[in-house]
Design goal:
The protein has helices spanning about 1-10, 15-30, 40-65. It has about 70 residues and is mostly helical.
């Protein structure tokens, strides 16, 4: 299931497949999940953590650019 799910996710984004595949592979490796072993629950957990990290980084960047009150 892992390879099929991996392909579905990279295709569904509509973004450059090589870039998405590389980033998803990096996230899977960091989580200790093999590409061929990935389950839907693994994908949900990993992407949830990723989105939280991205939003936190964006919030911190925004705080740096806002004028002091």
């Amino acid at each position: 299931m892992g390879e099929e799910l991996f392909g579905q996710v990279t295709d569904a984004t509509g973004l450059p497949k090589d870039a998405i595949a590389g980033e998803l592979e990096r996230l899977l490796n960091a989580a200790g999940v093999g590409r061929t072993d990935m389950t839907l629950d693994d994908l949900r957990r990993i992407l949830s953590e990723y989105v939280q990290d991205v939003l936190l980084a964006a919030k911190e960047d925004l705080a740096k650019t806002e004028p002091s009150k």
